[in-house]
């Protein structure tokens, strides 16, 4: 057993740290460190900076331009970005649809779509969930009817994250009603400028419009936007899930937010309170434990052992930790997290926040936003069922 | 021992429930939130039901009821998550009835009961959190007047209130003062709150307290504690005493919301 990183891995970490320090704009990192609102431009700027370096597709195979990093190197890269205050990379293009196009798309599609994704120029959205199909995604009803050299798409997607910025959307659509629901689903790439598409933002509990509804009304999609074979889309989507192992723990961000929690607790005077410090300590212990679990998975990958079954545990613990640090931050501010001043969550707001601490402005909003984490990405209840079957037998 | 409500209490409950069901729909509440979080017209409607005078004695224009009635009212207002802070009228009514000199009672209680005067508790300070005895605001006596200086936060509907109950240190001891909104040096700055309601910061700079203030310093902390206790007891959240599983916080709109969610059930 050896819990240390190798000298090469540590050198790699230093290299990444230096590059991020030199290339991450401070206006953006300052916003991230105090949870101020990020604009579309902020997110796309960072994507393009990474893209220019060839690191937006940091997990891509080398044959498609990826840097060829090991699992540990990818983890260190993600960690250094998170600790430095880089925004979360919008995953739909570089992390979700690109691997599917690489694995199952044809050469023409790879040539057409991958460069725009790799450079950060093109914003992608994910069209999976529907009003009637969330946990039971296979029951989806948005249909694509083949007519000549086109598909005609009708239906509705929901919870489309940042869909209001999307230029392209990858959709799971129904192309057959025969057999089991999973066997009638196809993976279709759709231009969001197509006539018949309507996007409507949904305002969430924190007052922001992070997600949308997207309607498809007789949308014409060229047939050569179908990835792989018709009715095999479900398999391609599952393939994606198999690749998302340790990211889901979000432990890197947890480490950064723990420091923010301590800053807030000190400013608010509760850091002196032994009982509150106990709560911070318990959380810190949980974060270290989760990090150890992540490193265990990475080292198992390195040694060739397959530990896919840990993913559910990472998601459960990771999401509970996200909820806990947002909750503790809000508790630290106490009554001073009550004011809801929308503009105060923009960096550079010149007003006077109640209590003179504008860093308290987003705390309740963050807490509310994080209520989603135990529900999305495979709800924690479903994850526990899987753990019971796969891990505990 | 009797945990049942009287007929009068049930009638009071029905009256408030009817007002909430008919007069305070989700749409009205949403409009009020969009407009800033407080609607004077709605507060006046509640005053017309007699609710602002619930704890005010009958000879001061109120209906002279007690905490059980207060609980019933707050349960029903809680079902509709009503934004207008009637509980502040309870606090002001109870505190003035219990401790104010006669002149002050006569000047303010009828107006509180009638809804003409919104009087709110202004006690939250930056460093005090939940410690009611930590108070930085100061009161100095000058020419027979008490001048109050300090900042209070999160004052319910503070920028719409007509007067404030302000704890301040007088000669090193905590005392409670009533300051009218037009008093010299008195300024408010309002904002929305997370629940869709409204609050404000209150700045007092040598602001004169309303006449007839001298309650006696040694009772300041006691009055203040009472006021804060009333504040905490009348947050619209008590559980139903009948043992039914009915979380009174916004049960009406909560049921409606659940119906809507079931209709478009999606769990990611």
Q: Explain this structure to me?
A:
The complex is a heterodimer of chains A (393) and B (268). By secondary structure, chain A is an alpha+beta fold. Chain A folds into three domains: 7-89, no CATH class; 124-232, Beta Barrel (Butyryl-CoA Dehydrogenase, subunit A, domain 2), CATH 2.40.110.10; 244-390, Butyryl-CoA Dehydrogenase, subunit A, domain 3, CATH 1.20.140. Chain A is 46% helix and 14% strand. In chain A, the strands form two sheets. A four-stranded mixed sheet of chain A has the order 1-4-5-8. A four-stranded antiparallel sheet of chain A has the order 2-3-7-6, with no helix packed on it. The longest helix of chain A has 30 residues, at 274-303. By secondary structure, chain B is α/β, with parallel strands linked by helices. Chain B has a single domain, classed as Beta Barrel (Butyryl-CoA Dehydrogenase, subunit A, domain 2). In chain B, 38% of the residues lie in helices and 21% in strands. In chain B, strands 1, 2, 3, 4, 5, 6 and 7 form a seven-stranded mixed sheet that branches. In chain B, helix 1 (7-23) runs parallel beside helix 4, helix 5 runs antiparallel to helix 6 (102-114) and helix 5 packs antiparallel against helix 7 (220-233). The model of chain B is unreliable at 212-219, 236-251 and 264-268 (pLDDT under 50). The interface between A and B is medium-sized, with 29 and 19 residues.
